[in-house]
Amino acid sequence: MRSFLSDTLMRPLRSRPYHVAAALLFVVVAAVYYLPYLHALPTGIHTWAQSDRLSLALNFYDYGLPFLTPRTSSLVSIGGVTGVEFPIQAYLAALGGVVFGRNSIVPLFRLLDVAMTVTGFFYLFRLVFERTNHFVAGLVPGAFLLASPFYAFYAGSFLPDPFSLSLSFIGYYYWFRFFENRQFPDLRLALLVLTLAGLVKTTTALHLGAVVGITLLWAFLEPALLLPRHRRHFLLWAGVGFGAIVAFFLHNQYLNNTYRSWQFLSSINPILDPETQHDIVQSVRTNWLAEYATTTQYRTLAVCGGLLLVFLRPNLRRYLPLTLLLLASVVIAYLFVQLMGSSLGVHDYYLICSFIPPAVLLLVLALLNVGKYTGPVRYATSVGLAALVLFLGATGYKRLNRRMSDDYPPFSQYYTHLWMRGGAEQLQRAGVPQTATILVINEAVNTGQVYFDRRGVAWQPGEMGEITAEECLNRMAADSLDYLVMPPAVYAQLAPQHAAFAAGFEQVGREPGVVLRRRDRRRPW
Fold first, then answer.
1. Beta bridge pairs of residue 485
2. b/e per residue, 440-455, with b = 16+ CB within 10 A?
3. Residue 484 phi/psi, 5° resolution?
4. Which residue ranges run through the membrane (predicted)?
């Protein structure tokens, strides 16, 4: 470890213009990628999961910003209150809504996520550039992530996973810088940022544990790493971080039990039998491998894996903390599969905080070694990496536009939200009060409520064509709901029962959804 410290090539920040150029470049690229979709409601793959998160922000705003009692627009729990991982994004978007108006919550939410994504790219740039002085090499990690179809898509959405991942990149930067310059504030900042990342997404708490474990092991083998008082402070800050994560988890369990909520998964979901494992592996191979990364990215990672072996001795000498963190992140990815494997056949975004960290660390280590060369080799790497950056950026942009469109087979055939567009405006034109509650014929817990901008319940009957007016009235009476909303195609299937529906409901809208007002609000359940 002493050889690592003696051989570390310190790169003072002599080239601030390059930092500014990189930051501006990331901002411009992000604007090109995401500005066209800044005002869009949740759409595309996993619209339901995005709607759940956006619903938190809307209800923070509507209910006076009660951070410790978050709620969604779904009344499946008592009052819509639910336990959820640290909802800082939704809360900040709601705060922005207080300043700029409720209609600004959607663009502010997306803008916040994009801003954090850009910040994560910038710190990956600093991690590489400040040790190699290779500008193009510093751009590669950001371009690599933008080329990932699922990462680029969710980075501009409402999910917490890319937000947490970007925070972890910031934490990695300050943690590694601590090993270089032995300044304890860097380590403290790394712990604070990684704690926040772990609060936002519990998976990232495992990476906080890896950072703490590696630092403790290093300090045990080399006591000079931390002064006695710094060792105490380190243990204190680590304890505070883990304590905060555990306390918030227990608070969420309390909310879920008290308000009978199940909206956000808060338990492990391992693979329990060979049949399930086979189905999940088939789903990943068929549906998700091409969404996680492109062929170019898989080949790039394979090359980086080879370079890891070629530069193994330099990595152990100069970049030992990052090498150990890479090893730990691989173990974390394996543990994640063991704990949450049954969810991987459906939830592609679960891999963002579990599998992207080892991929990025592998890429960063390769760039740190390749970027150290000078002369003709440096020129060749500059040209080659520049071509890679441009190709990855162009590929990512095209793929993002495809994935944001309504025609993205095979996934788009399962989209159930397209008919809802314009739903809020329809209810406003029909004079439906903002406080009215709705029963939406849809399986997604919060999507219909978000699109029609009303609280209520989503309901998915077994056979659409066999829904009766009596069933709908009973279901609405159970939660004192005011309006029934369904796709026009479903209502058309119920033609034989239109007379019965007319007796129990008054139709107030036809497009984009058929909206029926319950006539007798006194009907008992």
1. 440, 515
2. bbbebbbbbbbbbbbb
3. -105, 130
4. 20-38, 108-129, 135-155, 191-221, 233-251, 319-337, 349-371, 377-397
Please give the DSSP secondary-structure letter assigned to residue 409: T
pLDDT digits (tens, 9 = 90+) for 342-376: 999 999 999 999 999 999 999 999 999 999 999 99
b/e per residue, 26-45, with b = 16+ CB within 10 A?
beebbeebbeebeebbbbbb
**Alpha-carbon span 515 to 265, nearest angstrom:** 32
pLDDT of residue 525: 54
**Res. 522 pLDDT band, cuts 50 70 90:** confident
DSSP labels for 10-72? ---S--HHHHHHHHHHHHHHHHHHHGGGTTPPS-STTHHHHHHHHHHHHHHHHTT--TTS-B-
Q: How are beta strands 483-486 and 514-518 bridged, if at all?
A: antiparallel
> Would you report the helix, strand and coil content of the chain in percent, each value rounded to 5?
70, 5, 25
Q: Where are the beta strands (DSSP E) in 78-143?
A: none
Angstrom distances, CA of residue 144 to CA of 294, 407, 494? 10, 25, 50
Q: Which of 141, 146, 137 is nearest to 169 (CA)?
A: 141
